[in-house]
Give the backbone structure.
Amino acid sequence: MPQTTKCKNCGAAVRMDAPFGHCSKCLLELGFGPFPEEARSPAAAPQDQARSFGDYDIIERIGRGGMGVVFKARQRRPNRLVALKMVLAGELASPTLVQRFRIEAEAAANLDHPNIVPIYEVGESAQRHYFTMKLIEGISLAQLISKFGFHDGKELSTGPPGRNVQKSIATLMVKVARAVHYAHQRGVLHRDIKPSNILVDVQGEPHLTDFGVAKMVAHTSELTLSGAVIGTPSYMAPEQAAGDTKHLTTAADIYSLGAVLYELLTGRPPFRGETPVETLRKVVEQEPERPQSLNKIADPDLATICLKCLEKDPRQRYGSAEALAEDLERWLRDEPILAHRASRAVRFKRWARRNPLLTATSAGLVMLMGVALILMVLMFAERRRTEELSAEWRRTEEMRLDWREKKALEMDDMAANPGKYPSVKIDSRERHFMTGTLAPKVIPGQKPIRLLFGVYPHLKPTEMVEMFAPTLDYLERSLAQRLSKPVLIDFVVFNSYAAGELALEKGQVDLMRVGPGSFVLARRNNPGIQLLVAQRHNDFGAVIFVSTNSGVLAIAELRGRPIVFGDSNSTATILAKAFLLESGLSKKDFSSVTHRAGHSLVVDAVKSNPNHPAGVAKETAVGKDMRVLHRYPIVGMPWVARSDLDPEIAKALKQILLTLQDESILDKFKDGVTGFKEESLEAYQPIEPAIEKAILFGAM
Amino acid sequence: MNGTPEFLTTHWSMVLTARNQGSPQAAQEALARLCRVYWYPIYAFVRRRGYDPHEAQDLTQDFFVHVLEDEILKSVDPVKGKFRSFLLVSVRNFLAKAWNRQQAAKRGGQFTFVSWDAESAESCYQQEPSHDLTPEKIFEQTWAAVLLDEVRKKLSLEYAAEGRGGLFEAVEGCLAGEKAGPYAKMGARLGMTEGAIKMAVLRMRKRYRELLRSEVAHSVGRLDEVEEELRDLLACLSR
């Protein structure tokens, strides 16, 4: 016989597990209009909702795109005109997408650049996600393109852009590229640069709009409603067109900048098919036509700059949007540009034109043949190297598996005896060996840059290696590319927070990921420690929690009970102790106070203790079977460098981390890390007083 | 809300429009999302039709495989029709046609999006009142229950996400009013004033209503059908 109870409202029989302890009828009835007492509250919708939306009065619709509708609207407080973009319901289908949308939009909201349309607000109202931007009075570059004299690729109306117009095009693109570079430095990709996303105001200044969000939101509909919302993929980088949205880098935006420049020069985007699918195929498979074949007076150097952006291989494009801007400026100043090899031949031709006496056609040919020969030699050498590497790979594979087992045992044993070993170190070669990746090649006689990267233990050392290996591999590759030298990063896991802090203070590690609390503590003794970047989290916080069957509902009820904290120097612990002290509880008010080395160990301790102790851990470690009594956010974990680390290396590390967006790397960190951001020292200041309070908590 | 119909894109409306625009993939995704919430009423319906737990598990799984094929979508009236009615009509037809089952069974392996714990489905079914409800009736009742459960789940997750899970658990019983226990007493226990509890209940009820209406909206095609569907469900329960 099923067990029943009574509806808490009407007394009808309901199942024990009825939602809210109410019967379905009572619950459904609540779905109709507001109760009398609610009618007075301001949020209880007046009739004219059609014209108003949250804090905004909608004036008119000014556009509609794949992701939603754009309105011109007036914000009530502060009183100003804005562009309000409302995301179509259903576009953000999952909570993860909603969260990503918000993170992206919030990241973009932090961009403060004269050529980026500022985002004012990101929010949700009436279950619609929206964001508002500065309203730019002007027209989009897409509309302007016709003014440069083209209707489409074939038909010219007033003629192709001449030299002067090309100069204004380059000047405009310098500004756009710099704006993109500014965002890249702050870890934000645009992902959907195209003429319609570049607004030009009445002064002729370009303003880039829809940073980071447009593509992300359009993503789902493009996949599903084929043709209907897809728009044109003409400006998409081949790697993006091929669907590789996970590993997009700044190079994808640089491609799109090139595609816009191409259209400005020739009147049509580099690839255009009858259908979006055909365009996609062309983007991936075909080489763009040289701009000069579409516009005879397109400057060859400007065309070369453009084609360098459009290289299929991201590594062949400009290394940064800034490099593109600089090359455009060189062109504007009539200086030689740096764009790719083919331009040497072109430059030679131009030089030859200026110096007819010295020129024989054969000289040009000889030079071209020379270039071709060098290319062939390089290609051959590259192939040889790949073959060598794969042979080496095969030789080591068997050894690797044996060794990995042994090393793993050794490392975990070391970790189990913290008194014996303050840290566990694994060098770059060992790490690559363990994870089965190829270590950076060091040519004999060449001195590599060696860096030591440290972390605290919150997992077993072997698990820590797995967590950090992809990042360290990535840093090795990217640093080597920037510094033109092989880079090896060794890895050290400290056996306690204190041991890590000490090593950091003494400058024994070059680079370290630390907790915010440790960072503040270590800086007290060594203020020279450099803050490089902070992890950007997906709403990262810690909680004070109890098991649901403890019967405890409020913080005050913890008096007389046991409590389990994490490491005493961890930020979660420091902030929890400060909060408890503020709530009138100190160490003596608990029947016992213990510390465990990791978050999951705290959760285990709470679960296994029949006295139902309270626990303190990061939120992601705490399961749904626990009751959260207090939640508090934790500022992004800092990545720091020792005070005297070579500034060039520190700068490169910072830039590489800021542009790291590869989810397959970031996901390893767990905790919803979405990337890195610049962070000021001030962000860590609130921890200072908390440390004092945490000490008081224990002393009282 | 009625003034802005263009904003409405519910799961069910997506199924209908995507189907019209010839995009079965979008339709399938939205449909799969709906099926994930509403599988239990189907199971209860099939059980009440007299199949034993084992058969009912197989048939329910087969039915969803069948639903998630595109052909069945073509039979939906494009202008009107709610997801609930669609599902009920479909399951009746499905049980009537044995060949359909065999067809679907062959393909069963590749569809895993409507997965459930078969044992918990049965133990849940065992909790249903045992008097002689028709299969249709039990379908409607469990439909409402699943819908309301889903709303509660969302609401409690929202509270938990804000670190107010304790508060939610304490006051959820007062959703429809103070009958469940005086606010003053509850306030004393939580260290809050009576007024604060009253406010907390009001806020919870408001958010509950929003979530309920949005959940209902997903199973109908247009926003103005939300109230109608609520009334309909109420009527089903009262009959």
Observations:
- Chain A has 23 helices and 23 strands.
- The longest helix of chain A spans residues 361-416.
- The mean pLDDT of chain A is 77.
- The radius of gyration of chain A is 30 Å.
